[in-house]
């Protein structure tokens, strides 16, 4: 799906520039770990395989580090101001993926085994903890007056992150419809916390470290949170209708696992005959088999769940842009942010 | 075993006084969590059972919060200065127990199911993460100029803690003797990191928050680390010779699991025929059965492993006391520390 007509040409260049700026400090930070933690960190960051060999193409996009760098630049500072903040958010993101994969029982990520699958659950719990601790100490040692405020910013985001994960966890045991059903606005709150908090924190941290005023920090934080909700909406679309060749996940994977995602919740909350048929289908206990998952996908589409989710993504992208318009930002960094934000969300699946 | 003749009478009173001082802030801090995290935190802190009912007698001793309070008082401040630091170290301690129990596969703690056993592994990973995040944010928001230094102190201890856990984890796959064997000094390094870092941090944090000079902070930190090594040595003795009625663990539990503890390593490194017989016994693969574990305990004793471990505990207690003599400390808090430290280590098993 295409969510924007903004030129994409330079988004990968922006990501590359930021990655190059941050990389030496990230390498230095990881190098302070116990050698075993450094090995699991290098694997989890996509730098190496399980045997320590280089693993080209396994890295993430580095979205959070880029937002930190652009946050500092947008606030009138230099990207270098943001480097320790960028390191911290990449480490926290990596920590959260490691622990999420344990919680969700996911066995693959970016076409490789997840850390718990490769090293065992206990070691993966510890590897995540080590990255969490390293993120805090990296930021706590940032020089200058912004360091303490940066730690507070990160700590707040961490609280929101685990809050969102608890919300998500509890959704599992709630009914699809009727009293206690998960409503679309609750899902949005979960996504804001779970996905949005760290994206918002990344951009805000850059601004904090560059000495920006509170209004700029807050606007960047809120913009990142809206990006997170849009990102989650697109992730949910891909989890149902994404091309397995592109997503690396089986088709209808979220539906088979009966995951409560926005398209399903939006469909179920619609006043449409397909919503009632979908409810009946989901109410039959156990994971869905292939034909049932295909049928569920059709019913979600028919009841408007797909359309509502695309609208949700668009709405939150627009809200993110509006946040950037509310405060004075350096022109070139603002342009880079406007290039990057839709690119992050616009993944063809 | 009795490691000290210091009157114990007032150690429980010291612990009670510190617990009462810290408790309101700890309750307030836990109350900021998502309700589900607040429930798992209350369970893990021993406040409630799995159903939320009160659970008298399930609390830990509150050693770390007491060290924080006494650290502040020893540095000439008031116990109130230390409260947020005390909350942070108790939360970190609780987080580390939750994750340790997952890593070690331990099913009971303080005669109750461990959190992962009661709630599942994934939820327990998340519950630990939530306490970790809460500890950082609680301390990051501490008012006054000591807040930023306190966060740095905690971050350093967290790095050491996970370092020690990695050391411990890797011991498992190393041989008992010969090239690559774990030597007693490596075990001491592990205990300093894994057990000592947070005890040292607790006392140091109190001092930092009371505005103490670096020399006082360092002396308290080091004292706490020595206490940690002594504590670990006694824990190891109890893991072999402790009374199951008192420890709540099966007799010889560490031996059955082939855990590399100080008494075994000290025995194996002795030039004694019993050391060689012990090596042969341990080399026979698989966990030890009852008669083999009993025989191993006898051989460890015969080779001097038990005596060496008692000496190790005494030595580190003496070193802890020496640290307290190196810097000027408020008289009454110093006396409380000297009462508390041997009490913490002297557990009859």
TrEMBL record, chains A, B:
GO terms for molecular function: prenyltransferase activity. CDD domains: Trans_IPPS_HT. InterPro entries: Isoprenoid_synthase_dom_sf (IPR008949), Polyprenyl_synt (IPR000092). Keywords: Transferase. GO terms for biological process: isoprenoid biosynthetic process. It holds the Pfam family polyprenyl_synt. The keyword Transferase applies. The keyword Transferase applies. Belongs to the FPP/GGPP synthase family. This is Polyprenyl diphosphate synthase. It comes from Streptomyces griseus subsp. griseus (strain JCM 4626 / CBS 651.72 / NBRC 13350 / KCC S-0626 / ISP 5235). The lineage of its organism: Bacteria, Bacillati, Actinomycetota, Actinomycetes, Kitasatosporales.
């Amino acid at each position: 799906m295409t969510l924007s007509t903004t030129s994409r040409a330079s988004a990968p260049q922006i990501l590359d520039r930021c990655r190059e700026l941050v990389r030496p400090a990230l390498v230095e930070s990881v190098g302070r770990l116990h050698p075993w933690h450094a090995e699991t960190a290098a694997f989890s960051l996509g730098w190496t395989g399980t045997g320590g060999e280089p693993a080209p193409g396994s890295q993430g996009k580095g979205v959070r580090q880029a937002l930190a760098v652009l946050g500092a630049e947008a606030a009138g500072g230099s990207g270098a101001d943001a480097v320790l903040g960028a390191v911290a958010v990449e480490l926290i993101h990596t920590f959260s993926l490691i622990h999420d994969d344990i919680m969700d029982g996911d066995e693959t990520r970016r076409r490789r085994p997840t850390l718990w699958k490769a090293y065992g659950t206990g070691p993966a719990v510890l590897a995540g903890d080590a990255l969490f601790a390293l993120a805090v100490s990296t930021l706590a040692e940032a020089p200058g007056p912004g360091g303490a405020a940066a730690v507070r910013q990160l700590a707040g985001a961490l609280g929101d992150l685990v809050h969102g994960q608890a919300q998500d966890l509890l959704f599992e045991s709630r009914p699809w419809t009727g009293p206690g059903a998960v409503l679309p606005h609750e899902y949005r709150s979960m996504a804001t916390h779970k996905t949005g908090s760290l994206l918002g924190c990344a951009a805000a941290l850059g601004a904090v470290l560059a000495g920006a005023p509170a209004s700029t920090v807050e606007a960047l934080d809120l913009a990142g949170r809206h990006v997170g909700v849009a990102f989650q909406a697109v992730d949910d679309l891909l989890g149902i209708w994404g091309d397995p060749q592109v997503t690396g996940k089986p088709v209808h994977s979220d539906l088979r696992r009966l995951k409560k995602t926005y398209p399903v919740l939006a469909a179920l909350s619609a006043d449409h005959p397909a919503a009632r048929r979908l409810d009946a289908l989901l109410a039959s206990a156990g994971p869905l088999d292939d034909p049932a998952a295909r049928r569920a996908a059709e019913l979600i589409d028919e009841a408007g769940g797909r359309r509502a989710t695309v609208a949700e993504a668009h709405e939150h992208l627009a809200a993110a842009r509006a946040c950037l318009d509310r405060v004075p930002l350096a022109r070139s960094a603002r342009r880079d942010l406007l290039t990057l934000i839709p690119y992050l969300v616009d993944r063809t699946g």
